[in-house]
Amino acid sequence: MRIRSSEPINDGLLFGAIEDDFMGASDLASRLSEQGLRTLQVFGLPAEEFIDKLSGQYDAVVISLKSRSIAREAACEWSRLAIDRLRRLKAKLALKSGNFGSPDFFLRALAQLN
Question: Which residues, in sequence order, are CB contacts of 32 under 8 Å at separation 6+?
């Protein structure tokens, strides 16, 4: 079952995710793409200028922070900044993963938007 067609969306990003490790982010981005979403995975915190250029090009953006291995305060700050980036893209659903966030969890949440 595909969640979306390949038609572009014009009113903002459908789905944004923040992952705290690269492997989980890659798995999620792959699963979203398999479901028919135009998906971009970004490694590290993207610059605001980069985010501004993405508007309307993707259905889903997965930000890979690799924040498990840094101090808690820095990880929280990176996550907050990543949320701000997804807000700039007008994400309809933005989720932060940790150990609880399997790709199936994200796909079930995304299906609730349809």
Answer: 15, 39, 59, 60, 62, 103, 106, 107, 110
pTM metric for this prediction: 0.76
Q: What whole-number distance in Å separates Cα of residue 4 and Cα of residue 6?
A: 6
Residue 100: CATH number of its domain = 3.40.50.10840
Alpha-helix runs per DSSP H in 35-102: 48-52, 72-88
The whole-angstrom separation of Cα 74 and Cα 3 is: 34
For residue 64, the enclosing domain spans: 15-111
Domain count of the chain?
A: 1
pLDDT, tens digit, for every residue of 42-93? 999 999 899 888 878 899 999 998 888 888 888 888 888 888 888 888 887 6
Q: Is residue 3 part of a domain?
A: no
